[in-house]
Amino acid sequence: MSPHLSARSRLTLLYASLFTLGGAVLVLITYLLVAHTLHATTSARIPPAVQREIVQCVGVVQARGAGAAGMNKCDQVYANGVQAGAAAQRGTTLSHLLTYSLLSLAGVILLAAAAGWIAAGRILRPVHRLTAAARAASEQDLSQRIALQGPRDELHELADTFDAMLGRLDRAFTSQRQFIANASHELRTPLTVMRTAMDVVMAKPDPTGEELVSMAAEVRQAVDHSERLIEVLLVLARSDQAQARADPLDLATVAEDALEGRAASGITTTSTLNEAPVAGDGVLLERLIANLLDNAERYNIAGGTIAISTSARDGTSVLHVVNTGTLVPADMVERLFLPFTRLDDRTRHDGFGLGLALVSSIAKLHGGTVNASARPAGGLDITVRLPRINK
User: So what's the pLDDT on residue 322?
Assistant: First the structure.
């Protein structure tokens, strides 16, 4: 059987072949049995009772000298006997034909069922492997793969699709576990700060009012840090799971709202905002731009610059943010868009490492893409492309 045929074609050819073979066997068996029956009954065409009547008739005619009239009567008895013999032979032949045909049909059905069961098991073996892999897969172990070999048919495509799905689930669960571990670590840090501040003050037999006020200030600062982190985590989770609204917006207007009221000390921000129509959620898109600006300010240098621009070209609306800053290793750029990833140690900055991860999530939610590259002189060059709409 050709390996280039699909599983459906191979099953069709298989069962058609089995049916043809079974029918041929049935015809051959029936033919041989009927031929044997006809051969066995050829010498018994006239029933014995009719033969006795013929003998008696001939004897009476010869004894009485009935002549031609008597012989005609015997001939009529003989003819009736021949017809009765033919009818008996026909009934016997049909009875045997029916019996042998039913027995042959039952045997061929059993043979075809056994052959079909074996052949179907061989063809559907990949399905059993897929089922076994699905049962073996779990949240803790998604390393099972089918890796099916053979012709590129429907079953092979199904196995490849299942392997790809397991790969995506494995990456998603790994990312989720890493995200939970990082979030737990980030939330544990302010709790540790609060506990330490309180333990230090409460360990003193008679803490002064100034020490209590200092402790309260540290606790308040840690609470504010935790609140901001939780808010960012909620926005990130919401943007990952929600469906974007399709309100007609202009990225230039959204960028103006994000720039309003910002005053980065020692950093010059320039903007070139041209019309860039998109469809989406204004709140999330403003958060996207605000996060890009926050990141550009936080990791900039004294006296540095930030350039933001919007435009529409090639069927997309483009947001472009360029900032000066420290030199970013080329292999670090993509990692910056992962949750809780920072360029520098967190003691130097108050960020959570979630800003660019949220940018990537919001862009993906709106059907867009984010591309970033490290500038040779330091800093980042980030471009966000979103589907353009006709106003």
Answer: 94
Contact between 112 and 23 under an 8 Å Cβ cutoff? The reply is no
Extract long-range pairs of 134-140: CB within 8 Å, 24+ residues apart: 134/162, 137/166, 137/169, 139/173
- Interhelix angle 154-202/7-41, rounded to 10 degrees, is 140
Helix (H, G, I), strand (E, B) or coil at 386: strand
Q: What is the dihedral of CA 219, 222, 228, 231, to 10 degrees?
A: -80
Q: How far apart, in whole angstroms, are the C-alpha atoms of residue 240 and residue 361? A: 6
Token pair belonging to 302: 């004294």
Number of neighbouring beta carbons within 10 Å of residue 1: 12
Instruction: Give the span between the Cα atoms of 76 and 87, in whole angstroms.
Output: 17
| The pTM of the whole model exceeds 0.85 | no
CA distance linking residue 5 with residue 8, whole number of Å: 8
3-state secondary structure string, 237-293? HHHHHCCCCCEEEEHHHHHHHHHCCCCCCCCEEEEEECCCEEEECHHHHHHHHHHHH
Q: How confident is the model at residue 32 (pLDDT cuts 50, 70, 90)?
A: confident
The H or E element spanning position 220 is: helix 209-241
**What type of residue sits at position 371?**
N
Which phi and psi angles does 37 have, rounded to 5°? -65, -45
Phi, psi of 239, rounded to the nearest 5 degrees: -70, -30
